[in-house]
Amino acid sequence: MSRLREQIAEEAARLMMEGGIRDVAQARRKAASRFGRVDRHALPSDEEIGLARQRRCQLYGGSSQVERLRRMRRLAREAMTVFKEFKPMLVGDVLEGSLHANSAIVLQLFAEFPEQVIFRLHAARIPFAEMAQPRRTGRPNPAPRDHSGFSFLVNGETVELQVYPIETRLPSGQIKGAATKQPGASLPDLIQLLAAGND
């Protein structure tokens, strides 16, 4: 990796972890703009930015960060169990191990209708809020949202539910038509990760 590419990856990681930017593409664009005009071939990949975030966590996180990651992964397992009928996938910071102050447990759920998830939230007596979820197409002006979002708190941590139409789920767990392929873990994957102690 070139030095410029590495610097952009590090800056994008910083923006995501300290600046609260959650979209990798947005963080990459903003980081690149700080280095002037940059050829798109010099831009780091999502994976390179993810690795930069992990390095940053290891460097600045310490033992409290490791314990928080373990706790959030256990909470994710509990939440995925509650919503298992919607084939939940854990994505984002908690899966990647790159936590920051604003990290949330992000679950992608798949349902015929968002109301099914609302009924499940009510049945489990979980107070929740609806979230605005713009479609992530990579275009400057996002199209109207293509999925619903809900959030709730558990033991001081935020859980975000992104509810997609069931027909958009690919066998791999990825979302059909997504601008970027976000790695995800199913409930069995997460149980295996916890059992292996890789948390």
Low-confidence stretches: 134-145
Radius of gyration: 17 Å
Which H/E pattern describes the elements?
HHHHEHEHEEEEH
What percentage of amino acids are in beta strands?
Answer: 15-25%
| CATH fold label of the largest domain | Beta Polymerase, domain 2
- CATH class of the largest domain reads Alpha Beta
What is the mean predicted local confidence, pLDDT?
A: 82
Architecture (CATH level 2) name of the largest domain: 2-Layer Sandwich
**Helical percentage:** 40-55%
Provide key terms for this protein.
199 residues, alpha+beta, Beta Polymerase, domain 2, 2 domains, 6-stranded mixed β-sheet, 7 helices, globular
Q: How would you describe this protein?
A:
The protein is of the alpha+beta class. The chain has 2 domains: 3-60, no CATH class; 62-196, Beta Polymerase, domain 2 (2-Layer Sandwich). It is built from 7 helices and 6 strands. A hairpin with a 2-residue loop joins strand 4 and strand 5. The radius of gyration is 17 Å and the shape is globular. The chain starts with a helix and ends with a helix. The model is unreliable at 134-145 (pLDDT under 50).
